[in-house]
Write a structure and sequence with these properties.
- The chain is α/β, with parallel strands linked by helices and 418 residues long.
- The longest helix has 16 residues.
- Helix 2 packs parallel to helix 7, helix 2 crosses helix 10 and helix 3 packs across helix 10.
- Helices cover 29% and strands 25% of the residues.
- It is globular, with a radius of gyration of 21 Å.
- The protein folds into two domains: 189 residues, FAD/NAD(P)-binding domain; 146 residues, D-Amino Acid Oxidase, subunit A, domain 2 (D-Amino Acid Oxidase, Chain A, domain 2), CATH 3.30.9.
- The two termini are 33 Å apart.
- Strands 1, 2, 8, 9, 10, 11, 17 and 18 form an eight-stranded mixed beta sheet that branches. An eight-stranded mixed beta sheet has the order 5-6-4-13-14-15-12-16. A two-stranded antiparallel ribbon has the order 3-7.
- Flavin-adenine dinucleotide (FAD) binds next to helix 2, strand 12 and strand 16.
């Protein structure tokens, strides 16, 4: 892989001496070609990772990523960056753990600092039912060989001194920790994959909206775009909250609901929280960024919508939940708030599959939790596109599960957005 410029201590020092004016653009901005072997629609993490692994794992480099806006401008650049693999069902745990293992070496592999910080993700229990279910959950995770441990309220108090363990409206009764979980810099993940895919010959084309999907005799032949028609032998759709719109262009329907999920950040404060905290029962999750801001999220809006703003009641409910756990945060000012459109499937699990159109593939349904899945989502989608067969880990995530009733019902493990 030949990068336009490699990052290293030496490169940093050399560029510092010239006032950082000589860094090269990290990827090319080519004009679209008339035809490609494969097109990936959507320049978010999943689309970019798919293109990278098509080139790296399968030697396909006549590939384009078409993005209607800017790279990472969708949910990849709007999320709260929690990475973990502690799902309830083995199908999910194994899939997300592939992603986590790829994340662990991603900065090194892609020569880009994605700021992966495996600081630990702590999920809290507040009721006897929470304790029973979460202890079962810990066992289920451990059965797949993935790390997870139960903590008592006293242990949690020592890990998170700022939290009101006993004094809050909902006293904390325990929780479970995945030490390998954590956070990463979201834009950097998109940029790192874009740069590496570009280095392998992939064309990354921004400001190029797909407006139609062309097919002949039931087989995809290309796409219509705001920059003209482009032919392709294979096409993948990886557009998160816009998946049902793209499916409509191709003439089929997906079992998805699109809703807005919000997040917000506080003003920066001194280090106070070095774990990621998830509290499904009261519906909030938060972590502290390297800059000191608290990054906070909660549940989705209660109604389907394609807006990227979000409703006020969700903000109010999320802040109330945070203050239940951290009363001292009531003095904080919030700096920014935003929303993203998430695509939620009936069992809250993702969809990676073929579609009713031959050689047209879909990667969607990540809902509130697909940032953590990006490396594995890209890996498995590339595998399916290149070989025509599912990767063993993505096979359970096909569309057929809804017809056959073999759901991967992660409603509980994904119950609080993350
Ligand atoms: C507020 C919020 C918090 C979240 N927190 C977490 C978290 O903590 N952890 C976690 O794991 N996940 C989280 N998620 C979910 C996660 O962000 C997504 O699942 C993930 O980023 C999806 O990546 P993607 O590449 O599929 O989609 P996106 O990043 O949305 O990329 C899709 C791209 O497709 C483009 N596109 C759409 N239509 C077209 C078209 N017609 N032509 C060309 N391009 C098109 C869009 O512009 C977009 O850039 C959160 C989401 C939100 C909104």
């Amino acid at each position: 892989m030949t990068f336009r410029s490699r990052f290293s201590a030496f490169a940093l020092a050399r560029n510092a001496l010239t006032g950082h004016r000589n860094w090269q653009a990290q990827w090319r901005s080519p004009e679209p070609k008339a035809a490609y072997d494969a097109i990936v629609i959507g320049g978010g993490g999943h689309g970019l990772a798919t293109a990278y692994y098509l080139a790296k794992n399968h030697g396909l480099s006549n590939v384009a990523v078409l993005e209607k806006g800017w790279l990472g401008g969708g949910n990849t650049g709007r999320n709260t960056t929690i990475i973990r693999s502690n799902y309830f069902f083995p199908e999910s745990t194994r899939f997300y753990d592939l992603a986590l293992r790829l994340y662990e070496n991603l900065a090194h592999e892609l020569n880009y600092n994605i700021m992966f910080s495996p600081r630990g993700v702590l999920t809290l229990a507040f009721t006897r039912h929470d304790i029973e279910f979460q202890r079962r959950w810990v066992n289920a995770i451990q059965m797949t060989g993935v790390d997870s441990e139960w903590l008592t309220p006293a242990q949690i108090g020592r890990c998170v001194p700022a939290m009101a363990i006993e004094g809050g409206r909902f006293p904390v009764r325990g929780g479970f920790l995945q030490k390998r979980g954590g956070i990463a810099r979201h834009d950097a993940v998109a940029w790192a994959y874009a740069r590496a895919a570009d280095a392998l010959g992939v064309d990354i084309i921004q400001n190029c909206e797909v407006t139609g999907i062309a097919s002949k005799s039931g087989r995809v032949t290309g796409v219509e775009t705001s920059r003209g028609a482009i032919r392709a032998k294979k096409v993948a759709i990886a557009v998160a909250g816009h998946s049902s719109r793209l499916a409509e262009l191709a003439g089929f329907r997906l079992p998805l609901e699109s809703v807005t999920l919000q997040a917000f950040v506080s003003e920066p404060i001194k280090p106070v929280l070095d774990l990621v905290i998830m509290a499904g029962h009261v519906h909030v999750y938060l972590s502290q960024s390297d800059k000191g801001e608290l990054v906070i999220g909660g549940g989705t809006d209660a109604y389907p919508s394609f807006t990227q703003r979000g409703s006020y009641p969700s903000v109010e409910q999320t802040v109330a939940a945070m203050l239940t756990l951290f009363p001292s945060f009531s003095a904080l000012k919030m700096m920014r708030q935003w929303g993203g459109i998430v695509d939620i499937s009936p069992d809250r699990s993702a969809i990676i599959d073929r579609t009713p159109i031959d050689n047209l593939y879909i990667n969607c349904g990540w809902g509130t939790g697909g940032f953590k899945a990006i490396p594995a989502g890209g890996w498995a989608t590339a595998h399916l596109m290149a070989t025509g067969e599912h990767h063993a880990l993505s096979a359970p995530f096909g569309l057929g599960r809804f017809a056959r009733g073999i759901l991967i019902d992660e409603g509980a493990a994904a119950g609080v957005a993350h």
